[in-house]
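JOB MANIFEST
job_type = single_chain_structure
chain_count = 1
residues = 328
[input]
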Amino acid sequence: MTLSTILGPRFEHPVCRIELITRKGEEDDQDEKYLLFATKNVIGLQTFPLDGNPWKHAGLLGHPLQITGMCFREDSGTLFNIGAKDSCVYQWAANYRAVETTTKQGGGDLDPYYCLVEDGRPGWLFHEIRDLFYYIQILCQGTFSPEIRRVKDYVPIDSLPDMMRALGYFPSEYEVENLIVEAKFKVFQRVPSIEIDFEEFFKLYINHRPAFPDSVKKIRNAFRQFARPNQNDEFVINRDDFLDLLNQNGEHFSRELSWYLLSILYGQSFEDRAALPEPDFEFIPEEITLTELLTNIIGVQDMETFSDYSTRESMVSQIATSSESEDA
């Protein structure tokens, strides 16, 4: 079980090395914790606590090709690293103040997180999240209740999975369990919470939703793992094999539930479903192609816009990487 899921620094390559370091506090001040990280060719520092705030880290180019090893001395705040295809040892001085300054520039409350949603705070996604948060309160109070509506700052934690799905993130049952545990205990609480406020809900959504959207290439590769070429050399999945995948693998569905969900995805009306003998899957083609899977089952409306994504760096990562300073 995962206690917490958070976004990490986003650079051209993923983080491959992390190290917890401590900075001695001045006089009676408490020691401060930092996370030293490295990607393929970038080194950086991130402040604690880890909460997905994209302004809490700063990084710069640590090697032109690839970092193969690094070592940090806490007493002097010095980092040594070596790289591929050269015989140089690089020495860096940790600039903790630069990381603290970057964190303050991000602002407080939800201000640092607005850059992680489309069009920021004025955008449609943030308004959808906010409207959904209050709509869930109406559902919990009763849609047709004659009582006066009371707007609160909290919603039940048990409603989190449905809220995530309404926003386009469809977690597995394992991910739902991790989501509920994190919301209830917040890593350190011994007594579980039963409600969550808007700020915590927004952070959970930002940290738990996929960091990168699905791409045609990713779906195509997964499709070909189970498909076979037909007479026209086109990869297809037999209808019965496809149903067996849903009913027997992973977090599988029952055959009745598969029939109900697929009939809705294929646009069968209530009258059509009532006329079909359950479970009858004749409305699904005998051979399912990749296009059939994308358009009718997954529901991709515009294939041109559903293209391979490009790795985009966060605003802080772009600023930090372009810096020519030698302080890490």
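[summary]
The two ends are 33 Å apart (CA to CA).
The longest strand covers residues 17-23.
exit_status = 0
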